[in-house]
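Hi R.,

Here's the chain you asked about this morning:
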Amino acid sequence: MPRKSSAALPFATSTAPRLHPPDDLVAGSPEQRLFLDLVIGCRADHFQPSDAPLLSDYCRAVVLEQTASGQLAAGGHVTAEGRASPWLPVLQHEGL
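And here is the predicted structure, written out as tokens:
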């Protein structure tokens, strides 16, 4: 009997419910969208309910870093008045 290719194998199905974003992530916010992207990108049973606080904190940190980095890229690290950008402490505060 010939061997089946990996493309011919059935998809694994799971009845495990996916992790839902916690209520403290605002609906439609970049943090919630990132949370959902990460959860949907993995197997349904990959994340457990106990992962929700850490995953939501991670999403907040990523979005804050992206915002601060974008602001620094657009406006520079030094303002027109010769002062450090107010986004530098935001980036440093988060330890990113």
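One quick note: The chain has a mean pLDDT of 88.

Cheers,
M.
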